[in-house]
Specification:
The structure is a homodimer of 196-residue chains. Chain A is elongated. Chain A has one domain: Tetracycline Repressor, domain 2 (Orthogonal Bundle). Chain A is 74% helix and 0% strand. Chain A is an all-alpha fold and 196 residues long. Chains A and B meet through helix 6, helix 7, helix 8 and helix 9 of A and helix 6, helix 7, helix 8 and helix 9 of B. The structure holds a DNA duplex (30 and 30 nucleotides).
Chain lengths: 196, 196
DNA sequence: CTCATCTTGGACTGTTCGGTTCAAGATAGG
DNA sequence: CCTATCTTGAACCGAACAGTCCAAGATGAG
């Protein structure tokens, strides 16, 4: 039972991430993480660090993984902005539809807990939300949206994406989540049609 | 120090509510509640019940207090629907602007924690979100909005209201929060203009 | 085969958790 | 003044918490 590492780091990190994602920082004990990852307590501390740094790693992992997908979805925004933003939200909807993953969003989960989290973790969550807005801003700029509209919609769409996370936690149907998004897409479509 | 009650129940409940609201269920200990309310542990248990039922009482208190304000804001929706919905969001924005109250929203806070809360609490949070949608639906119907639009906007606006809670937790500026809302109000204004 | 290296499981520490119990003592009615 | 009633503070309980430590033993290099 020793010698070389007996677990897959990627699998273990995913399991820890899912656990934090589902239950949040405070409601996740190190024993929970041990059970979820299959790793013993001492292995968690030696390989994954303490609870705080593990949470930070999970947050980065989450932000990178889905950040890449959001980027990809928005990549052809200049050609078809509406289709791109629709694809952006599809990343979220598909994630929620995946039965292997918790509802909601780890970033939203973290943001709601900011007052009781370490400053380092709080800063990372804020940074992830800023990155999401920046992503949208870049895409909307490439789509030649009016300057003021770019900033407004970037902020609005990032927020609506978070609202989908909250509503999915409360058991909203896929149809309801679609509706939330479609109203915003309607507004965006209107802005795109009237761009310079 | 005994004989008749030596504390104001309303003040104590408010203090407990604010504490849950700020830190969430899991990160709030009974000792925290004791400090926040100024009540001893045994007084909390005898007068306020255990942690679960106290949380439930705080949730109801929150839902009633702000539910009434949301109702009032929407009360003249038939005359000026847009102004009414703007007033609806102002309830949220004013709450967030109040330095004596935490950012965010206790309902959103609760919804995000549903997987680790008791079924009774989870049900109450879902019920509060449903009530919010019903409120908006009633108001938009009274405003003669098109039938399909009524349901869509009720779901959308309730969700956007939750998104404001998340973003305020992450330190979004009042201006950003306004922008999130204004984009939705723009969409609503468009729908109102094209009503039958 | 031998042995230094490194992972692992489990025991352990001190603290905090939610919840209960109860004696001390203040109160209000008579 | 007296006494039944009720609140209160603090001690207490077992469980769970985050984090540490170390012997047992598997491994791979020589």
């Amino acid at each position: 039972m020793a010698g070389r590492k007996q677990f897959d780091m990627e699998v273990a990190l995913d399991a820890a991430m899912v656990r934090f994602w589902r239950a949040g920082y405070a409601a996740t004990s190190v024993d929970d993480l041990s059970r979820a990852t299959g790793l013993n307590r001492s292995s968690i501390y030696s390989s994954l660090g303490d609870k705080d740094s593990l949470y930070l790693r999970c947050l980065d992992r989450y932000a990178t993984r889905y950040g890449d997908r959001y980027d990809q979805a928005l990549s052809d925004a200049s050609a078809e902005p509406l289709r791109a933003v629709r694809a952006f939200f599809d990343v979220t909807l598909q994630r929620i539809a995946d039965p292997a993953l918790p509802d909601g969003c780890l970033i939203a989960q973290t943001a709601m807990a900011i007052p009781v989290l370490s400053p380092a973790i709080a800063a990372r969550a804020v940074q992830a939300l800023d990155a999401q807005q920046a992503r949208l801003r870049t895409a909307l700029t490439a789509a030649n949206l009016r300057g003021t509209d770019v900033d407004d919609f970037a902020v609005h769409l990032a927020a609506v994406n978070q609202s989908v996370a909250v509503m999915s936690r409360a058991g909203a149907s896929r149809q309801q989540l679609r509706t939330i998004i479609d109203v915003s897409l309607g507004a965006l479509s209107h802005a795109v049609r009237s761009r310079d």
